[in-house]
């Protein structure tokens, strides 16, 4: 009977350890997902605002004006993203990011502006939500690779 009791105890201990490991992994995955979402939280509201102003018939301006606006938007977004990346909590012992945050911030901002420009020029007239989905599909995998 004692041997059976010890065997059962070891089985329960193994299950308990696996459950703890699974919970820790789930917490880390949720934290990484929250970090990625925080970094790109700007995209949906901007797409929606552009859609709203376009529906109201607001003038877009000539190519030079759009180019200047896109350049400024890219700079502002890169600064916002970089601040968010730098504010992400890092645990002791975590490896440093594989890509410099400044480069990642510029890439995400540039990708957003490219998708925004493509969306506005597209003949398909996707809703803002779907344009945002396209942007997210492009950047989330890269953010996942860098942020975990």
Continuous helix count: 5
Taking pLDDT < 50 over at least 5 consecutive residues as the criterion, the unreliable ranges are 22-27
Helicity level, as a percent range? Answer: over 70%
From the alpha carbons, calculate the radius of gyration and give it in angstroms. Answer: 22 Å
Backbone shape? elongated
Terminal Cα span: 47 Å
The average pLDDT value, as a whole number, equals 80
User: Structural class of the secondary elements?
Assistant: mainly alpha
Number of strands: 0
SSE arrangement, N to C: HHHHH
What percent of residues are in strands?
under 5%
Largest sheet: none
Model description:
By secondary structure, this protein is mainly alpha-helical. The chain has five helices and no strands. The protein has helices at residues 2-39, 43-55, 63-87, 101-121, 128-147. The chain is elongated. It starts with a helix and ends with a helix. The model is unreliable at 22-27 (pLDDT under 50).
Short description:
It contains 5 helices and no strands.
Observed structural traits:
single chain; 5 helices; 148 residues; elongated
Furnish the topology, listing elements before pairings.
Layout: H1 2-39, H2 43-55, H3 63-87, H4 101-121, H5 128-147
């Amino acid at each position: 009977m004692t041997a059976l009791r010890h065997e059962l105890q070891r089985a329960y201990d193994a299950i308990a350890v696996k459950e703890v490991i699974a919970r820790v992994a789930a917490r880390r995955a949720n934290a990484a997902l929250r970090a990625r979402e925080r970094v790109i939280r700007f995209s949906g509201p901007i797409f929606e605002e552009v859609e709203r102003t376009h529906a109201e018939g607001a003038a877009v301006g000539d190519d030079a004006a759009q180019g200047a606006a896109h350049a400024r938007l890219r700079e502002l977004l890169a600064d916002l993203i970089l601040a968010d990346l730098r504010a992400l909590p890092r645990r002791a012992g975590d490896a440093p990011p594989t890509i410099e945050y400044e480069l990642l911030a510029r890439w995400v901002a540039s990708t957003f502006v490219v998708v925004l420009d493509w969306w506005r020029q597209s003949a398909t007239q996707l809703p803002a939500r779907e344009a945002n989905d396209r942007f997210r599909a492009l950047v989330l995998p890269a953010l996942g690779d860098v942020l975990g």
